[in-house]
Specification:
Order of helices and strands: EHEEEEHEHEEEHEEEEEHEHEHE
Bound molecules: S-adenosylmethionine
Number of domains: 2
Strand order of the largest sheet: 14-7-8-6-2-15-16-1-17
CATH architecture of the largest domain: 3-Layer(aba) Sandwich
Oligomer: single chain
Length: 308
Amino acid sequence: MTGRVKDPGLLFHADAASACGLLPAGRELDLVYLDPPYGVGTTMTARTKRGEARGRRRKESGPDAYDDDLPIEALVEMVAGAAAAIKEKMAPHAALFVHLDQRAVHEAKVALDRVFGRGAFAGEIIWEPGNGARGRGVPTTHQTILIFARRPADRKLLRWDSRSPLLREPYAETSLSMHFTKRDESGRLYRERTIGEKTYRYYADEGRRMGSVWTDIPAMSANTPLFQEGTGYPTQKPIRLLERIVVAASEPGETVADFMCGSGTTLVAAARHGRRFIGGDRSEVAIETTKRRLEGEGIPVLIVERTS
Ligand SMILES: C[S@@+](CC[C@H](N)C(=O)[O-])C[C@H]1O[C@@H](n2cnc3c(N)ncnc32)[C@H](O)[C@@H]1O
């Protein structure tokens, strides 16, 4: 892991678009992740003490964390508005990752194409949290993370560090037994492929590049050992998911932002990997949770309160 940045990160208690407007002139963002409400149609609550439940509001719920009750059209408009403000602050090589589910992702894709230009769309990650199908109807067991460049001409500048171990997965058994038949002087298994004039060597123990469907990172609630990282904030994402995104799409010392940071997962991932961070959220519970979490990890942060 890369050495941590000593300067404190910024945490705006503000709406995403206004937080962008409050950034110092000339401060560029190298990577932005946004995990907005999904259009669930209810208020989401936090678990702040034993016995309380988090998630959709019910009898045992803790305090309200945020409202997720906008109609889809209004939700998409809000996300597009935030993206337009973010675009103004993105470095030419920066990517915006937008995490949604089947309720709003398709309308959001179209709206974000209008913000960035259709050719700025770089692809999408399908994340399967591993909770299994619920109910008897058509199953939906994945969420989608859309990836955009600042504008179509900048798409080729986007980063993707596929050499990082966080972006590798084991080769399939059949591929290992059929193709990885040679050993180098230290005993490592490899295969070689010649493409054009050049021969490339691939080592079995380095694994292959991750594809765009990620099934190896369980959701917070799907895997009990992960509860250690649980803050009680609803829809908290696993730190491994954000670590993979941060490492893939930014470099040490660069600025990673999340203006709907909830419990601060992106900010912790950024700090752990030696990136600067800028966070924000309009929910008071989110800001308190993020502050506590960062302090718990010894990560310095400066809170900026909205003034209006
Ligand atoms: C799905 S949660 C984010 C969870 C987060 N990724 C985590 O790992 O904890 C969505 C967050 O967006 C925030 N939010 C919704 N609309 C916002 C807006 N317009 N500006 C800033 N924050 C907003 C909510 O308060 C909520 O904390």
